[in-house]
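Risk mitigation, structural track. In case the binding assays with NAP fail to produce interpretable data, a predicted complex structure has been prepared as a fallback.
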Amino acid sequence: MSARTVLVVGASSGIGRAAAHQLAERGDHLVLLSRSREALEETARECRLRGAGSATVVVADVRDAEAVDAAVRGVNRLDAVIHSAGVVAYGRFEDVPKDVYDGVLETNVLGAANVARSALPVLRAQKEGVLVLIGSVLGEIAVPNMTAYVVSKWALRSFGRQLAIENRDVKDVRVCVVAPGGVDTPIYRQAANYLGRPGRPPAPVDSPEKVARAAVRAIDHPRDRISVGLANPLMRFGFRRMPRVFDALVGPMFGVAALEPEPLAATTGNVHGPVTARERVADGRGQGVGTVVRNLTGRGRR
Ligand SMILES: NC(=O)c1ccc[n+]([C@@H]2O[C@H](COP(=O)([O-])OP(=O)(O)OC[C@H]3O[C@@H](n4cnc5c(N)ncnc54)[C@H](OP(=O)(O)O)[C@@H]3O)[C@@H](O)[C@H]2O)c1
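Fallback model:
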């Protein structure tokens, strides 16, 4: 396998950091982008230890189109982009402050647009390359108390589909959306929160490494849409085919399966800036039967 150059956006934590590790193991050259220099430097060290051809750190906010463009212009060749940057806000729509609501949409939707706007002309000029966008099953269903995030993921799914269509004219330029269900990453604890209780991934919970594998595999075997998560088809089916049943169940189930029991003071989380101390690959919740039972019974965290 020849080494590729891959830009990983959102490389300092969770799925993006796991993807950087996996790309490093095959000797790829990596450009690692997010807002936290400290967490990125740590990720770059991990990647070098795993065999990366090179690991370059770019500290940038995806909301800053010029900074994103400078990162892309800084590489000689770009074989792929894994865009994994994203933030969450919990709370009823009217309880989430405007700056936080807007911040989620600016990061998750306009940030992805900034990345694609800079990367696609490079891929098209080369006549090959893959843009992988990390979407979510929440881009296909609705849940209460996560309006900004859900709206952003519906937008990201349509954005990916639009870009896939617009780039059909160049056979080897592909745009893929990877849609995970619940994944054990720090995103839940990093989230802005106006609900009074922290979020958690609803069972069944996948590992960030599993989702990263799907994203990395999409570079070699691109498909428009890749779903990761055993319960995703069931959720999509219920949402589309039995909307009344879905709506009646999703509220009570969200309170039990998607929220921790302990109280939490209102916070803007990492929406406006990074919370470096929390950044790592996995949050350590486990993915086994014990987690499913604990989530369903609402008992304990791990
Ligand atoms: N975890 C799940 O259950 C789950 C499920 C479905 C989909 N997803 C999606 O998967 C993607 C990765 O999430 P994750 O779970 O791995 O979360 P995570 O561990 O919190 O990682 C998010 C990454 O995005 C970066 N980021 C956030 N805002 C940014 C900004 N404005 N500019 C540049 N980088 C920014 C963060 O770094 P800095 O804060 O240092 O910038 C971090 O590297 C997201 O799009 C998320 O929506 C996650």
